[in-house]
Design brief:
Jelly Rolls, elongated, twelve-stranded antiparallel β-sheet, 5 helices, alpha+beta
Length: 283
């Protein structure tokens, strides 16, 4: 009897597992597509015209992707830097270095997705570069030559994607989990893919880190004392394009992996315990 009870308890551990937040990040779209199994491209062209403004995008599942910062719809490569793979999609252009996004259903309630992806590219305007040259360029006292500052600070930026397993910004007592993917993305070298497959993601955040400028007048001693790294520059914003949503292959299927319903799992555990008690009475 003890062996049977132990077996039932062990089975119970498998049928009623503790929930865990774990996503697998992907930086290659083809690898993401293979992992997601079933997916569909987000059709921006049917929802917006060029230079429209908006705060949400309808997804193939009929859910919505909401944006905290308003976006502008544009085309590449006409007005933005080059895009990867020779694609010229419509893009969501945000004039901010960060944006927070979440998923909603048709009733306006929060929902979650197990697989989602997009391409991102930061960009820098000519006005920003010219202002930088004006602020940091100088005339050599001996030769009178105008010395340009280091323009390589605009070549690439670290782009971060953080995914959350709860309604992060709607709950100030949030104690959920998150995971972060960081990629260095060039401003003129093509966008990079950011995607995940795994646990339910309710919302996510994108932010781009500034590049610090080397300031020779600030010595290491000053940095050690004050922690000052010098001035910094960032992009004017970033563009998102080629959004893709992972879709379940069946009602209880998540990215191609069958997931039993919690109620069915609980009934199975209760049934096993009942069998153990019945066996004990007979013996």
């Amino acid at each position: 009897m003890r062996k049977l009870t132990a077996l039932v308890l062990m089975l119970g551990l498998f049928v009623l597992p503790a929930s865990a937040f774990a996503v697998e990040f992907y930086t290659d779209r083809s690898a993401w597509e293979a992992a997601a199994g079933n997916f569909a491209q987000v059709d921006l062209a049917s929802q917006y015209s060029r230079w429209d403004f908006g705060n949400y995008v309808e997804l193939p599942s009929a859910n919505y992707l909401g944006f905290y910062q308003e976006f502008e719809v544009g085309l590449v490569p006409d007005d933005l830097p080059t895009w990867s793979g020779g694609n010229t999609p419509m893009v969501l252009d945000t004039w901010n270095n960060s944006n927070w996004m979440w998923f909603e259903n048709q009733d306006g309630d929060w929902t979650s997705l197990n697989a989602f992806g997009f391409e991102i590219q930061p960009y820098v305007s000519e006005d920003t570069i010219n202002n930088y040259i004006s602020d940091y360029g100088y005339e050599d006292e001996d030769t009178g030559e105008f010395i340009l500052p280091d323009l390589s600070v605009f070549d690439a930026f670290d782009v971060n994607l953080a995914v959350y397993d709860d309604e992060y910004y709607d709950n100030w007592d949030w104690e959920g989990n998150y995971q972060v993917l960081t990629q260095n993305v060039e401003t003129n070298g093509g966008a990079k893919f950011f995607g995940w497959v795994g646990s339910n993601v309710w919302d996510f955040e994108i932010w781009i880190e500034d590049n610090y400028l080397y300031q020779p007048e600030f010595t290491q001693a000053l940095f050690d004392e004050w922690g000052y790294e010098g001035d910094s520059v960032g992009p004017d914003g970033f563009a998102m394009a080629r959004l893709v949503e992972g879709l379940p292959q069946s009602e209880n299927d998540v990215n191609g992996t069958t997931t039993p319903e919690p109620a069915s799992m609980a009934l199975l555990g209760i049934g096993l315990l009942g069998l153990a008690r019945r066996f004990r009475k007979k013996n």
